[in-house]
Amino acid sequence: MNKLELYKAHDFSASKDPKLTVVFIHGIASDYTSFSHALEYLEKDKKINARYIAFDLLGAGKSLKTDELKYNYDEQLSALKNALDAAKINTPIVLVGHSMGTFISARFVSENPGLIKRLILVSPPIYTKKDLENPAFKAAIKVFEDAVSVKDPSIIKEKSFQDSMKNIVMDPMNYDVLASIDIPTDLIVGDLDKFIAIYNLPKITKANTCLRAIHTPGHHGVSHEKYHVIGKILEEETNETI
Question: Which of 31, 135, 162, 213 sees the fewest Cβ atoms within 10 Å?
Fold first, then answer.
């Protein structure tokens, strides 16, 4: 198989000399368009001088999708690194992940120290090992799969979905990786989100002062309230890099 690389589905720069590059990593059963409204909103904000890049993960959108892949961390992280290299980024990078994309973003930071300046994690599923071992967790996963099926019943049967759930979403090290992040990281959560184990939020933010919790109204998606918060964070980052 050739070198893995994520498909760059969106690339917009606010100026010829951006101060930041903001990279968006979507969640499972989705593609870069989960950030479409956020990108439209952010790119109109004249206070943010940034380049915005959104990728499709392996198995999604226009990125490679084949049964030869395992859709695990090794593949997704390698493909992300190659895509970032190919994008020829020469500014500090802010990585924005949503749902499963928060796992991939956090793991990328842990395995590539010094490359990312800040993390913004939207709707991060904060599952501990104990959560994953709880029989009630399987019921929660079933609720999520049912919600995905409403959009397209065939998605949950795809190898990319099943492997991603097993190899990334259910990885017992996810909580520990997030708890060890050593760069500024914002956890933006909807107070009605039933997929993220929000009860673990106070514990993890107390244990790691690099993590900041920001509560918004709403559920799991990338809502207006959430990308408004992203905009405020990016305004601060842009000002810091001047």
Answer: 135
Instruction: Give SS3 for 193.
Output: coil
Give, in degrees to the nearest 5, the angle at Cα 57 between 53 and 59: 150
Say how far apart CA 63 and CA 81 lie, in whole Å. Answer: 14
> Structural domain boundaries of the chain?
7-241
Q: Which of 43, 35, 29 is nearest to 9 (CA)?
A: 35
Counting beta carbons within 10 angstroms of the beta carbon of residue 34, is it exposed (0 to 12), middle (13 to 18) or buried (19 or more)?
buried
Tens of pLDDT, residue by residue over 178-224, are: 999 999 999 999 999 999 999 999 999 999 999 999 999 999 999 99
Rounded to whole angstroms, the Cα distance separating 190 from 120 reads: 14
Provide the H-helix boundaries in the chain.
36-43, 73-86, 100-111, 129-133, 135-151, 159-164, 174-179, 201-207, 224-241
Q: How far is CA 91 from the centre of its chain?
A: 20
Would residue 218 be called left, alpha or beta, if left means φ above 0 and alpha means ψ between -120 and 50 degrees?
left
Only one residue has tokens 């050739």, namely 2
Residue 93, strand partner residues = 21
